[in-house]
Specification:
Layout (H helix, E strand, L loop, with lengths): L6 E2 L16 E2 L2 E4 L2 E4 L6 H20 L5 H12 L4 H6 L4 H15 L9 H4 L13 H14 L1
Parallel strand pairs: 1-2
Antiparallel strand pairs: 3-4
Length: 151
């Protein structure tokens, strides 16, 4: 009897095992609760992160034509953009290419692709200090991952 929706994956020392017992579909990567996992034979980083980056780009492009203040743009970035990354960041470390692409999308949106007139560090300062409170994706992703693994 074939389990048509069931996938199995060899892990650990068995990760490269060519056997396909029990009439199951054997894979090198699978998606569980929205996150792609691999047995080490497949790179799942693009599967996990690229879709989030594509959605961020799409969301920011939808808001780009509106005449928003910097406070409004930061709100869009923090709430509709960055928040979509935190579940994944609790499970997987954000890679440098992800952080770099995230920053490119965010700062291009914030400054309308013009010269940045305020430092990125100042933009990420807490709002109580009078700044905009733009989320620093790199720091936040490390914090989220660290808090998850230490709780």
């Amino acid at each position: 009897m074939k389990y048509c929706k069931t996938e199995a994956m060899w892990l650990g020392a068995w990760h490269a095992c060519p056997d396909t017992p029990l009439d199951l579909t054997w894979v090198t990567k699978m998606k569980i609760l929205g996150v792609w996992y691999s047995n080490g034979l497949a790179n799942v980083d693009p599967d996990n992160w690229q879709s989030k980056l594509n959605k961020l780009k799409k969301n920011l492009n939808l808001w780009k034509s509106r005449s928003l203040s910097y406070v409004g743009k930061v709100l869009i970035i923090n709430v509709l953009g960055a928040s979509k990354f935190w579940f994944l960041a609790k499970i997987l470390p954000a890679l440098e290419w992800v952080i770099s692409r995230f920053k490119t999308l965010v700062f291009s949106f914030l400054w309308n692709s013009k010269i940045e007139t305020v430092s990125r560090q100042t933009l990420s300062a807490p709002t109580k200090d009078g700044d905009l409170g733009l989320i620093d994706f790199h720091s936040k992703s490390k914090d989220v991952l660290g808090s998850f693994h230490h709780s």
